[in-house]
Amino acid sequence: MPFNLLLLPLLGGFLFFSHWNRTKYFAKRQDKERLLLYSSFYGVILLAISFGASIIVPHIPPLLRLRHWWAYNTPAIRFSGISSFAFALGALAPGVFNYVWPFKRIWTSEKVSRKAIFDYGGPLEQLLYRAIDEQKSVMVSLSGGKVYVGRVVTSLAPQDDSAFYLLQTKSGYRDEKQRVEMTTNYDEVYRQIFLHEKESALSIISDFGVVIPVKEIVSATLFREDIHTKYFPHTELGKPPASNTPAPTSALMSPPKSP
Amino acid sequence: MGLYSYFIEGNVPMAIGTKTSAAVADSSAKVSEKTGGAYTDMAAVIQSELNRIIGNAGPNAGLVQTEPEDVLGKGNRLPDSNGTLREAEQK
């Protein structure tokens, strides 16, 4: 087989690898070299299937007529049919596996994508995914001392893990003893916006979203306000602890401190 | 118009990296087929936060309640009148 004809199975392998539910989220996490190798691997499989099909075709009259049509109506290049068939297989097989029962039940996008994040994602990506999935808030401390608490809207993308998007619900800073001091509580702000700007409340609140650059992050953790308030009494060492009852919500909070 | 339009009809202004095409904002975690990154609907996050804030503060007039079918679909559980969850009756 002429080497340039191997390009078609390689392209077919790439299409298959990057579109099949089972492998597409894995493919997103590969660097260029590995992507080429995986595409070649699937291209070889497609080529083998195509060769196998070429052995069967002479025994099936409709396919034999198709083969004759191909021979007389396409440029006379040896193995072009086998190579093109491998490409077509690579392009069409993901559709079959993704949308035809029982394959679509075995490899669902939801299941496979989640598995890819927990198998191949970093700790931060897994934490952010968990925050989205369980609808929990995260607390992020930045290198400049700024602290944000909020709900994750967009997590990290494997090939561009430079930032993620957060709808902030609280913000503050870390003091000289690295304790968290919350200075702004957006609950009251959002409530006022909702009550007074009904027509455009959603649009306005969505503008409070903040992009957090990953390189600025010092630490990130899930944040449960009730537990945080209850079990971190925010006291100086040597001083009696404050009451465990949650503080009332207000636009500007008295700065609670946590260890 | 108003929040009904935002939440039910899906006329939600897009924010960075958010998608809201469903009729009712979907708060579940999704993974983008283009980027491979997880995301959720901004509208659903805001709705959830407003439910938490306004729901605790007083009557949540204007907030859209989740359809019972959605609740059944999520966990097959419905809240009792006293707020506790119970298994939904099989029809």
Indicate the overall shape of chain B.
Answer: rod-shaped
Compute the number of helices of chain B: 3
Shape verdict of chain A: elongated
| SS elements, strand count of chain B | 4
What is the helix/strand order of chain B?
HEEHHEE
- The overall strand count of chain A is 6
* Helix-strand sequence of chain A: HHHHHHHHEEEEHHEEH
Could you tell me the mean pLDDT of chain A? Answer: 86
Distance between the termini of chain B: 36 Å
Strand order of the biggest β-sheet of chain B = 1-2
Cα radius of gyration of chain B in angstroms: 15 Å
Sheet having the most strands of chain B: 2 strands, antiparallel
Strand content of chain A: 15-25%
Number of discrete helical segments of chain A: 11
- The quaternary structure here is heterodimer
Largest sheet of chain A: 6 strands, antiparallel
Helix content of chain A: 40-55%
Short description:
Chain A is 50% helix and 17% strand.
Fold topology:
The complex is a heterodimer of chains A (259) and B (91).
Chain A: H1 7-19, H2 21-27, H3 32-56, H4 61-73, H5 80-99, H6 103-106, H7 109-120, H8 123-133, E1 137-142, E2 146-154, E3 163-174, E4 180-185, H9 186-196, H10 201-206, E5 209-213, E6 217-223, H11 225-231
Antiparallel strand pairs in A: 1-2, 1-6, 2-3, 3-4, 3-5
Helix pairs in contact in A: 1-2, 1-3, 1-5, 2-7, 3-5
Chain B: H1 3-7, E1 30-31, E2 38-39, H2 42-57, H3 68-75, E3 77-79, E4 85-87
Antiparallel strand pairs in B: 1-2, 3-4
